[in-house]
Amino acid sequence: MIVTDNSTKARDHAESAFSRTQTQFMARTRTISEIDAVAAERDAKTQRLRELRLEKEAAATAKAAASEKSAKR
Prior knowledge:
Number of strands: 0
Distance between the termini: 108 Å
Shape: rod-shaped
Mean pLDDT: 90
Helix content: over 70%
Largest sheet: none
Order of helices and strands: H
Radius of gyration: 32 Å
């Protein structure tokens, strides 16, 4: 009977330790996923803003070139 009690206590202790480790791992995984999602959103927004800026710069350059041509005439 004593051996069974020690075995049960050891098993309970091991299961508790494993559960804590699993919980920490799951929390860390969830946090990393959230960070990755935020980074992906930021990268997408940066790319969109870069494309808009380049379009605006191209339009300004085209407008300047057109006004330069009309001024030479």
